[in-house]
Specification:
mainly alpha; 4 domains; 0% strand; 23 helices; Serine Threonine Protein Phosphatase 5, Tetratricopeptide repeat
Protein backbone atom coordinates (compact mmCIF):
# COMPACT_ATOMS: atom_id res chain seq x y z
CA UNK A 1 0.00 0.00 0.00
CA UNK A 2 2.86 2.36 0.78
CA UNK A 3 4.37 1.79 -2.65
CA UNK A 4 1.00 2.33 -4.32
CA UNK A 5 0.47 5.54 -2.35
CA UNK A 6 3.82 6.87 -3.45
CA UNK A 7 3.12 5.83 -7.05
CA UNK A 8 -0.25 7.60 -7.11
CA UNK A 9 1.33 10.62 -5.40
CA UNK A 10 3.94 10.85 -8.13
CA UNK A 11 1.38 10.33 -10.89
CA UNK A 12 -1.41 12.57 -9.65
CA UNK A 13 0.36 15.19 -7.58
CA UNK A 14 1.31 15.62 -3.92
CA UNK A 15 -0.02 13.20 -1.33
CA UNK A 16 -2.16 14.16 1.67
CA UNK A 17 0.88 13.89 3.92
CA UNK A 18 2.79 16.36 1.70
CA UNK A 19 -0.02 18.88 1.89
CA UNK A 20 -0.30 18.39 5.65
CA UNK A 21 3.45 18.88 6.13
CA UNK A 22 3.37 22.12 4.15
CA UNK A 23 0.34 23.24 6.14
CA UNK A 24 2.25 22.60 9.37
CA UNK A 25 5.15 24.69 8.03
CA UNK A 26 2.89 27.63 7.25
CA UNK A 27 1.15 27.29 10.62
CA UNK A 28 4.56 27.40 12.29
CA UNK A 29 5.15 30.91 10.94
CA UNK A 30 1.54 32.06 11.61
CA UNK A 31 0.61 32.11 7.91
CA UNK A 32 -2.80 30.64 8.65
CA UNK A 33 -4.37 31.41 5.28
CA UNK A 34 -1.79 29.35 3.40
CA UNK A 35 -1.91 26.68 6.09
CA UNK A 36 -5.67 26.41 5.64
CA UNK A 37 -5.27 25.98 1.88
CA UNK A 38 -2.80 23.13 2.37
CA UNK A 39 -4.95 21.39 5.01
CA UNK A 40 -7.96 21.66 2.72
CA UNK A 41 -6.05 19.97 -0.12
CA UNK A 42 -4.88 17.28 2.31
CA UNK A 43 -8.45 16.70 3.49
CA UNK A 44 -9.67 16.31 -0.11
CA UNK A 45 -7.14 13.52 -0.62
CA UNK A 46 -8.05 11.73 2.63
CA UNK A 47 -10.92 9.26 2.90
CA UNK A 48 -13.52 10.11 5.56
CA UNK A 49 -13.21 6.71 7.25
CA UNK A 50 -9.46 6.99 7.84
CA UNK A 51 -8.02 8.03 11.25
CA UNK A 52 -6.25 10.99 9.60
CA UNK A 53 -9.50 12.65 8.51
CA UNK A 54 -10.61 14.01 11.94
CA UNK A 55 -7.09 15.26 12.64
CA UNK A 56 -6.93 17.16 9.35
CA UNK A 57 -10.45 18.52 9.84
CA UNK A 58 -9.46 19.89 13.27
CA UNK A 59 -6.32 21.49 11.80
CA UNK A 60 -8.37 23.05 9.01
CA UNK A 61 -10.89 24.49 11.49
CA UNK A 62 -8.09 25.97 13.59
CA UNK A 63 -6.39 27.48 10.52
CA UNK A 64 -9.64 29.05 9.31
CA UNK A 65 -10.35 30.53 12.75
CA UNK A 66 -6.85 31.95 13.13
CA UNK A 67 -6.86 33.24 9.55
CA UNK A 68 -10.19 34.99 10.16
CA UNK A 69 -8.88 36.60 13.35
CA UNK A 70 -5.73 37.78 11.54
CA UNK A 71 -7.88 39.28 8.78
CA UNK A 72 -9.95 41.22 11.32
CA UNK A 73 -6.80 42.49 13.03
CA UNK A 74 -5.54 43.66 9.65
CA UNK A 75 -8.84 45.49 9.03
CA UNK A 76 -8.63 47.25 12.39
CA UNK A 77 -5.04 48.25 11.60
CA UNK A 78 -6.15 49.66 8.24
CA UNK A 79 -8.85 51.71 9.97
CA UNK A 80 -6.29 52.91 12.52
CA UNK A 81 -4.14 54.37 9.73
CA UNK A 82 -7.18 55.53 7.75
CA UNK A 83 -6.74 53.18 4.77
CA UNK A 84 -10.50 53.01 4.40
CA UNK A 85 -10.70 51.69 0.83
CA UNK A 86 -8.49 48.69 1.58
CA UNK A 87 -10.30 48.12 4.89
CA UNK A 88 -13.66 48.09 3.09
CA UNK A 89 -12.42 45.52 0.58
CA UNK A 90 -11.05 43.28 3.33
CA UNK A 91 -14.26 43.67 5.29
CA UNK A 92 -16.27 42.22 2.39
CA UNK A 93 -13.93 39.23 2.35
CA UNK A 94 -14.31 38.80 6.12
CA UNK A 95 -18.09 38.89 5.79
CA UNK A 96 -17.97 36.07 3.22
CA UNK A 97 -15.65 34.00 5.42
CA UNK A 98 -17.62 34.43 8.66
CA UNK A 99 -19.19 31.11 9.69
CA UNK A 100 -20.30 31.59 13.30
CA UNK A 101 -22.42 34.19 15.06
CA UNK A 102 -19.35 35.25 17.03
CA UNK A 103 -17.43 35.91 13.84
CA UNK A 104 -20.36 37.82 12.35
CA UNK A 105 -20.44 39.95 15.49
CA UNK A 106 -16.75 40.80 15.04
CA UNK A 107 -17.42 41.76 11.42
CA UNK A 108 -20.19 44.10 12.55
CA UNK A 109 -17.83 45.68 15.08
CA UNK A 110 -15.38 46.43 12.24
CA UNK A 111 -18.23 47.76 10.13
CA UNK A 112 -19.24 50.21 12.86
CA UNK A 113 -15.67 51.47 13.18
CA UNK A 114 -15.44 51.94 9.44
CA UNK A 115 -18.74 53.86 9.34
CA UNK A 116 -17.19 56.32 11.78
CA UNK A 117 -14.38 56.89 9.24
CA UNK A 118 -11.78 56.02 11.83
CA UNK A 119 -13.00 58.66 14.33
CA UNK A 120 -14.07 56.19 17.01
CA UNK A 121 -11.97 55.73 20.10
CA UNK A 122 -9.36 53.17 19.06
CA UNK A 123 -9.27 49.69 20.48
CA UNK A 124 -7.26 49.16 23.64
CA UNK A 125 -3.98 47.46 22.86
CA UNK A 126 -3.01 44.34 24.81
CA UNK A 127 -1.18 45.14 28.02
CA UNK A 128 1.92 43.33 26.77
CA UNK A 129 2.22 45.73 23.85
CA UNK A 130 1.99 48.77 26.10
CA UNK A 131 5.09 47.92 28.11
CA UNK A 132 7.62 50.62 27.24
CA UNK A 133 11.20 49.47 27.26
CA UNK A 134 13.53 52.47 27.36
CA UNK A 135 16.54 52.04 25.08
CA UNK A 136 19.86 53.74 24.58
CA UNK A 137 18.73 55.78 21.60
CA UNK A 138 17.58 58.91 23.41
CA UNK A 139 19.81 61.07 21.30
CA UNK A 140 18.83 59.51 17.98
CA UNK A 141 17.25 61.71 15.35
CA UNK A 142 14.01 60.26 13.98
CA UNK A 143 13.08 61.64 10.57
CA UNK A 144 10.76 62.64 9.18
CA UNK A 145 8.67 64.35 11.83
CA UNK A 146 5.10 65.57 11.29
CA UNK A 147 4.88 69.21 10.34
CA UNK A 148 3.05 71.74 12.53
CA UNK A 149 -0.01 73.47 11.12
CA UNK A 150 1.61 76.89 11.01
CA UNK A 151 4.74 77.56 9.00
CA UNK A 152 7.16 79.16 11.47
CA UNK A 153 8.64 81.07 9.82
CA UNK A 154 7.51 80.66 6.24
CA UNK A 155 10.82 81.61 4.69
CA UNK A 156 12.85 79.18 6.77
CA UNK A 157 11.28 76.22 5.00
CA UNK A 158 13.29 76.67 1.79
CA UNK A 159 15.47 73.68 0.94
CA UNK A 160 18.50 75.87 0.20
CA UNK A 161 19.29 79.49 1.18
CA UNK A 162 18.62 82.14 -1.44
CA UNK A 163 21.24 84.65 -2.58
CA UNK A 164 20.36 88.31 -2.14
CA UNK A 165 21.83 90.85 -4.54
CA UNK A 166 21.05 94.22 -6.07
CA UNK A 167 19.24 92.38 -8.86
CA UNK A 168 16.95 90.42 -6.54
CA UNK A 169 13.27 91.16 -7.12
CA UNK A 170 12.19 91.36 -3.49
CA UNK A 171 8.44 91.13 -4.10
CA UNK A 172 8.68 88.15 -6.44
CA UNK A 173 11.05 86.28 -4.14
CA UNK A 174 8.85 86.99 -1.12
CA UNK A 175 5.82 85.69 -3.02
CA UNK A 176 7.71 82.50 -3.80
CA UNK A 177 8.53 82.05 -0.12
CA UNK A 178 4.86 82.24 0.81
CA UNK A 179 3.40 80.16 -2.01
CA UNK A 180 2.96 77.04 0.13
CA UNK A 181 0.82 78.89 2.73
CA UNK A 182 -2.99 79.19 2.76
CA UNK A 183 -4.33 82.31 1.03
CA UNK A 184 -5.46 83.98 4.25
CA UNK A 185 -1.99 83.62 5.80
CA UNK A 186 -0.34 85.00 2.68
CA UNK A 187 -2.63 88.03 2.81
CA UNK A 188 -1.92 88.62 6.51
CA UNK A 189 1.84 88.46 6.01
CA UNK A 190 1.75 90.69 2.94
CA UNK A 191 -0.21 93.26 4.98
CA UNK A 192 2.77 93.71 7.31
CA UNK A 193 4.59 95.53 4.53
CA UNK A 194 8.16 95.79 3.36
CA UNK A 195 9.71 95.35 6.82
CA UNK A 196 8.29 91.86 7.19
CA UNK A 197 9.18 91.08 3.57
CA UNK A 198 12.81 92.10 4.07
CA UNK A 199 13.02 90.10 7.32
CA UNK A 200 11.68 87.02 5.54
CA UNK A 201 14.26 87.42 2.80
CA UNK A 202 17.07 87.64 5.36
CA UNK A 203 15.83 84.42 6.95
CA UNK A 204 15.69 82.72 3.56
CA UNK A 205 19.25 83.88 2.89
CA UNK A 206 20.40 82.05 6.03
CA UNK A 207 20.88 85.19 8.14
CA UNK A 208 18.23 84.94 10.89
CA UNK A 209 20.15 87.28 13.22
CA UNK A 210 19.45 90.16 10.81
CA UNK A 211 15.69 89.54 11.06
CA UNK A 212 15.39 89.46 14.86
CA UNK A 213 15.13 93.23 15.52
CA UNK A 214 12.60 93.76 12.73
CA UNK A 215 10.36 90.91 13.89
CA UNK A 216 10.55 92.10 17.49
CA UNK A 217 9.44 95.55 16.40
CA UNK A 218 6.59 94.14 14.29
CA UNK A 219 5.50 91.86 17.14
CA UNK A 220 5.21 94.83 19.52
CA UNK A 221 3.19 96.73 16.90
CA UNK A 222 0.92 93.83 15.91
CA UNK A 223 0.34 91.68 18.96
CA UNK A 224 -2.90 90.44 17.42
CA UNK A 225 -0.91 88.55 14.75
CA UNK A 226 -0.40 85.10 16.29
CA UNK A 227 1.96 83.93 13.56
CA UNK A 228 4.42 86.73 14.46
CA UNK A 229 4.97 85.10 17.87
CA UNK A 230 6.03 81.85 16.25
CA UNK A 231 8.04 83.52 13.50
CA UNK A 232 9.94 85.54 16.09
CA UNK A 233 10.54 82.57 18.40
CA UNK A 234 11.80 80.45 15.50
CA UNK A 235 14.18 83.17 14.37
CA UNK A 236 15.46 83.65 17.92
CA UNK A 237 16.20 79.95 18.10
CA UNK A 238 17.95 79.93 14.70
CA UNK A 239 20.03 82.92 15.80
CA UNK A 240 21.24 80.96 18.84
CA UNK A 241 19.01 82.75 21.36
CA UNK A 242 17.10 79.67 22.57
CA UNK A 243 16.60 81.15 26.05
CA UNK A 244 14.68 84.09 24.57
CA UNK A 245 12.68 81.73 22.36
CA UNK A 246 11.66 79.63 25.38
CA UNK A 247 10.62 82.75 27.29
CA UNK A 248 8.39 83.75 24.38
CA UNK A 249 6.78 80.29 24.25
CA UNK A 250 6.28 80.31 28.03
CA UNK A 251 4.63 83.74 27.81
CA UNK A 252 2.33 82.49 25.08
CA UNK A 253 1.41 79.37 27.10
CA UNK A 254 0.48 81.60 30.05
CA UNK A 255 -1.42 84.25 28.07
CA UNK A 256 -3.23 81.92 25.64
CA UNK A 257 -3.74 78.52 27.29
CA UNK A 258 -6.14 77.58 24.47
CA UNK A 259 -3.27 77.63 21.92
CA UNK A 260 -1.68 74.18 21.79
CA UNK A 261 1.21 75.11 19.51
CA UNK A 262 3.15 77.03 22.14
CA UNK A 263 3.43 73.84 24.21
CA UNK A 264 4.29 71.87 21.07
CA UNK A 265 7.18 74.22 20.19
CA UNK A 266 8.38 74.49 23.79
CA UNK A 267 8.58 70.70 24.10
CA UNK A 268 10.57 70.39 20.86
CA UNK A 269 13.10 73.04 21.83
CA UNK A 270 13.56 71.48 25.29
CA UNK A 271 14.13 68.08 23.70
CA UNK A 272 16.75 69.55 21.35
CA UNK A 273 18.58 70.84 24.43
CA UNK A 274 18.62 67.40 26.04
CA UNK A 275 15.84 68.10 28.56
CA UNK A 276 13.84 65.05 27.46
CA UNK A 277 12.02 64.47 30.74
CA UNK A 278 10.81 68.07 30.90
CA UNK A 279 9.75 67.94 27.22
CA UNK A 280 7.69 64.82 27.87
CA UNK A 281 6.01 66.43 30.86
CA UNK A 282 4.98 69.43 28.77
CA UNK A 283 3.62 67.26 25.95
CA UNK A 284 1.67 65.02 28.34
CA UNK A 285 0.15 68.05 30.10
CA UNK A 286 -0.69 69.63 26.74
CA UNK A 287 -2.43 66.46 25.53
CA UNK A 288 -4.59 66.50 28.65
CA UNK A 289 -5.61 70.10 27.84
CA UNK A 290 -6.03 69.52 24.09
CA UNK A 291 -7.03 65.85 23.70
CA UNK A 292 -8.10 66.40 20.07
CA UNK A 293 -4.72 67.67 18.85
CA UNK A 294 -3.18 65.18 16.45
CA UNK A 295 0.06 67.17 16.32
CA UNK A 296 0.61 66.93 20.07
CA UNK A 297 -0.22 63.22 20.09
CA UNK A 298 2.14 62.57 17.16
CA UNK A 299 4.95 64.50 18.84
CA UNK A 300 4.43 62.47 22.01
CA UNK A 301 4.86 59.36 19.89
CA UNK A 302 8.06 60.72 18.35
CA UNK A 303 9.56 61.36 21.78
CA UNK A 304 8.64 57.82 22.84
CA UNK A 305 10.18 56.42 19.66
CA UNK A 306 13.41 58.27 20.34
CA UNK A 307 13.43 56.72 23.81
CA UNK A 308 13.07 53.24 22.30
CA UNK A 309 9.42 52.62 23.31
CA UNK A 310 8.31 51.50 19.86
CA UNK A 311 5.02 49.80 20.75
CA UNK A 312 3.83 52.75 22.80
CA UNK A 313 5.00 55.18 20.11
CA UNK A 314 2.90 53.32 17.51
CA UNK A 315 -0.13 53.58 19.76
CA UNK A 316 0.29 57.37 19.93
CA UNK A 317 0.78 57.61 16.16
CA UNK A 318 -2.42 55.69 15.46
CA UNK A 319 -4.28 57.86 17.97
CA UNK A 320 -2.95 60.98 16.23
CA UNK A 321 -4.33 59.82 12.89
CA UNK A 322 -7.82 59.80 14.37
CA UNK A 323 -7.70 63.34 15.78
CA UNK A 324 -8.60 66.68 14.21
CA UNK A 325 -8.50 65.42 10.60
CA UNK A 326 -4.79 64.89 11.12
CA UNK A 327 -3.48 63.39 7.88
CA UNK A 328 0.27 64.01 7.76
CA UNK A 329 2.44 62.24 5.16
CA UNK A 330 5.46 62.58 7.43
CA UNK A 331 3.69 60.61 10.15
CA UNK A 332 2.77 57.80 7.76
CA UNK A 333 6.43 57.70 6.71
CA UNK A 334 7.52 57.49 10.35
CA UNK A 335 4.98 54.71 11.00
CA UNK A 336 6.29 52.80 7.97
CA UNK A 337 9.89 53.04 9.20
CA UNK A 338 8.87 51.92 12.66
CA UNK A 339 6.94 48.91 11.36
CA UNK A 340 9.97 48.00 9.26
CA UNK A 341 12.20 48.12 12.35
CA UNK A 342 9.73 45.78 14.05
CA UNK A 343 9.78 43.33 11.14
CA UNK A 344 6.30 43.97 9.71
CA UNK A 345 6.94 44.46 5.99
CA UNK A 346 3.28 44.56 4.97
CA UNK A 347 2.39 47.45 7.29
CA UNK A 348 5.60 49.23 6.37
CA UNK A 349 4.66 48.98 2.70
CA UNK A 350 1.20 50.41 3.33
CA UNK A 351 2.72 53.28 5.32
CA UNK A 352 5.10 54.27 2.52
CA UNK A 353 2.35 54.09 -0.10
CA UNK A 354 -0.05 56.14 2.05
CA UNK A 355 2.61 58.80 2.64
CA UNK A 356 3.26 59.07 -1.10
CA UNK A 357 -0.47 59.11 -1.81
CA UNK A 358 -0.81 62.19 0.40
CA UNK A 359 2.37 63.84 -0.90
CA UNK A 360 3.59 62.35 -4.21
CA UNK A 361 6.56 64.76 -4.28
CA UNK A 362 8.01 63.69 -0.93
CA UNK A 363 11.57 62.74 -1.91
CA UNK A 364 12.60 61.42 1.50
CA UNK A 365 9.76 58.90 1.45
CA UNK A 366 10.60 57.92 -2.12
CA UNK A 367 14.17 57.07 -1.08
CA UNK A 368 13.11 55.04 1.95
CA UNK A 369 10.54 53.22 -0.18
CA UNK A 370 13.15 52.56 -2.88
CA UNK A 371 15.48 51.11 -0.23
CA UNK A 372 12.59 48.98 1.06
CA UNK A 373 11.98 47.63 -2.46
CA UNK A 374 15.66 46.86 -2.84
CA UNK A 375 16.43 45.31 0.55
CA UNK A 376 13.17 43.69 1.58
CA UNK A 377 11.50 42.90 -1.76
CA UNK A 378 14.67 42.37 -3.81
CA UNK A 379 12.91 44.16 -6.65
CA UNK A 380 15.66 46.18 -8.33
CA UNK A 381 13.54 47.32 -11.28
CA UNK A 382 10.78 48.70 -9.05
CA UNK A 383 13.51 50.40 -6.99
CA UNK A 384 14.96 52.01 -10.13
CA UNK A 385 11.52 53.25 -11.20
CA UNK A 386 11.04 54.93 -7.82
CA UNK A 387 14.55 56.41 -7.95
CA UNK A 388 13.83 57.91 -11.38
CA UNK A 389 10.88 59.75 -9.84
CA UNK A 390 13.02 60.80 -6.87
CA UNK A 391 15.76 62.20 -9.14
CA UNK A 392 13.15 64.28 -10.98
CA UNK A 393 11.88 65.62 -7.67
CA UNK A 394 15.41 66.49 -6.54
CA UNK A 395 16.12 68.35 -9.77
CA UNK A 396 12.79 70.17 -9.56
CA UNK A 397 13.57 71.36 -6.01
CA UNK A 398 16.98 72.66 -7.11
CA UNK A 399 18.57 71.41 -3.91
CA UNK A 400 18.75 68.40 -1.65
CA UNK A 401 22.39 67.38 -2.22
CA UNK A 402 22.17 64.72 0.48
CA UNK A 403 19.09 63.26 -1.19
CA UNK A 404 20.96 63.16 -4.50
CA UNK A 405 23.94 61.40 -2.90
CA UNK A 406 21.80 58.73 -1.28
CA UNK A 407 19.67 58.23 -4.39
CA UNK A 408 22.85 57.63 -6.42
CA UNK A 409 24.05 55.15 -3.79
CA UNK A 410 20.77 53.21 -3.99
CA UNK A 411 20.93 53.36 -7.78
CA UNK A 412 24.37 51.74 -7.67
CA UNK A 413 23.07 48.91 -5.49
CA UNK A 414 20.08 48.36 -7.76
CA UNK A 415 22.30 48.24 -10.87
CA UNK A 416 24.50 45.65 -9.12
CA UNK A 417 21.46 43.49 -8.39
CA UNK A 418 20.58 43.69 -12.09
CA UNK A 419 24.12 42.72 -13.08
CA UNK A 420 24.88 46.14 -14.59
CA UNK A 421 28.38 46.72 -13.18
CA UNK A 422 29.33 49.75 -15.30
CA UNK A 423 26.20 51.67 -14.37
CA UNK A 424 26.69 50.68 -10.73
CA UNK A 425 30.24 52.07 -10.80
CA UNK A 426 29.10 55.28 -12.47
CA UNK A 427 26.37 55.84 -9.86
CA UNK A 428 28.55 55.23 -6.82
CA UNK A 429 31.34 57.40 -8.26
CA UNK A 430 28.87 60.26 -8.71
CA UNK A 431 27.60 59.72 -5.17
CA UNK A 432 31.12 59.92 -3.71
CA UNK A 433 31.91 63.06 -5.70
CA UNK A 434 28.82 64.87 -4.42
CA UNK A 435 29.02 63.65 -0.83
CA UNK A 436 29.86 66.17 1.88
CA UNK A 437 28.71 64.09 4.87
CA UNK A 438 31.53 62.35 6.75
CA UNK A 439 29.15 59.87 8.41
CA UNK A 440 28.05 58.60 4.98
CA UNK A 441 31.53 58.17 3.46
CA UNK A 442 32.18 54.69 4.89
CA UNK A 443 28.93 53.31 3.47
CA UNK A 444 29.63 54.79 0.04
CA UNK A 445 33.22 53.50 -0.01
CA UNK A 446 31.98 50.05 0.96
CA UNK A 447 29.63 50.05 -2.02
CA UNK A 448 32.42 51.20 -4.36
CA UNK A 449 34.66 48.35 -3.19
CA UNK A 450 31.83 45.88 -3.68
CA UNK A 451 31.37 47.08 -7.27
CA UNK A 452 35.12 46.95 -8.04
CA UNK A 453 35.36 43.45 -6.59
CA UNK A 454 32.99 42.05 -9.23
Amino acid sequence: MSLLGNLFGNLFGDSASDFEARGDQFAGVNNWRRAGDEYEHALEKTAAETPAHPRLAAKLDQARTRSFDALLEDIHSCIDVREFTYAREQLELARRLAETSSQLGKVEECTERLKGAGRHVPRSLPAARLAASAGDSAGAVIQPEPSPVRAVPAAARLATPITLSANTNADQTFGRLLQHLPAEEVKARMALGEEYRDAALQIAAGKPEKAVDVLQKLYLQHRECEFLIYDLAEVLRDAGRTHDAKELYAFRMEQAPEDWQAAYCMAKILWSEGAGHQALQIIEAAVRRYPRSGHLMAQWGIFLQKLGSRDLALQKFYLALQLDDFDDPGLYHTIANLHLEMGDKDKALRGYLKSLELDPDRVGTMLDYAEFLLERQRDARACMAMLDTAFRGIRKASGGTLYHVYASYLSSRAHMLLGEREMALLSITRSLEDNKQSWLTEKLESQRHAVLAV
